[in-house]
Amino acid sequence: MGENPLIAAVRSGDAKAVAAALAAGADPDAVDEYGTPALCLAVDAFDLPVVEELMLADRPVELNCVAADGRTPVLRATDRGACEITSVLISRGADPRLTDAEGRDALALARHWHVTGAEAELRRRSGTSEPVVRRAAVDGWGNVCEELSLGGLTVRNGHTAILTELEPEYGIAPTFQELMGRALPEPDVDQPVWSATTITLQGRHAAPAVWAEAAALRDRPNPLERYCGAEVIRLINLFDESEDSPFDRPLVDLFLPWAAREEDPRVMRALTAGLSEAMDPRAEQPLPALTRHHDREVRRWALSGLHRLVAQGDPEALTTVMECTRDADARVREGACRALGTAPKDSTTSSDALAGCLNDEDEAVRVAAAIPLFLRDDPRGDQVLRDLGPVDGDSPYFAEFHAVRYHHRALDPAG
């Protein structure tokens, strides 16, 4: 007898095949020859798209299914350090308080990995002294993480992030310093421990001490501490839903002089992002100069903050953004095209600048230039859009193409 089609699709990592099997009536709770449920197999493979397909089945998958080793999908995701999958499973109703054969729930398991360390735990489990193989990976949400492999075991470095995200669900609130201390050993602020730390601290914004502690970090000699303070304050303002935006002006008061003296690019990214997101007009003052910063992410954030001025037809902002269409970095050029797309539709200067990007070596830049031209009824970018062929749900341009699909002018496939 052949392998169950759903199990085969899950093992192949083919989310479309999984969806097709489920639509044909496959049991989402199917198990493999070892008694491992399909959902657990997807978790073990760090395959968030397949996990989500299984949860979308007409007959909902059992989120708390137990494999032969006694672990639920949440426990497997926690054990693997797959923080985004852990988060998705719990948000859909999986129970993190169920325990494994050793009596550990998700919180206890995450804490064990955090205290022991991923490399030490891999060595303990594998019993080998061989070098750990490390490689950069991208999780299901597109975030950077690290993957560690030893003795046939592979985990990702999300255990501390999972611990930090789970603690509020258990009523546990470590101090600001303790949470920051978990992240400081990691110099790459794009790693999961940093987002978990700063978002958790942001969630405590109702306590005035959090803002004060974050702001006090601006003069610390360690740039990672400064980054933590800047990012927490940025997130407090970004996620605030108050009608009077009480954090906007204090952020600008703090960030303007800070950005003028800050030298670390990681901190500058947080400061520039905060200024770009602020509604206070003063925040726009340093942005044109920051589009020439040596760090490309700073340049990208600065561009995003110029959209309002470009939309108003501000000559300096338009000139600045047009200069960025010649940036050495493709993502900066793409951001410049998006910013130019917000310029008034009768701006021939911005349209000509967009047309000048239609031959860019990077496809995403060409598309970012072609779409606003199409929406302005300017046909110069039409061929770029035709060359893409069908833009379906798997295309990186699918969301952007919404405006093209429903525009009054159809994109003629025949040219």
TrEMBL record:
One Pfam family matching this protein: Ank
Highest taxon, organism lineage: Bacteria
Keywords annotated in UniProt: ANK repeat, Repeat
ANK repeat residue numbers: 1-33, 69-101
Record SUPFAM superfamilies: Ankyrin repeat, ARM repeat
Database matches in InterPro entries: Ankyrin_rpt (IPR002110), Ankyrin_rpt-contain_sf (IPR036770), ARM-like (IPR011989), ARM-type_fold (IPR016024)
Name of the protein in question: HEAT repeat domain-containing protein
Naturally occurring in which organism (per UniProt): Streptomyces aureoversilis
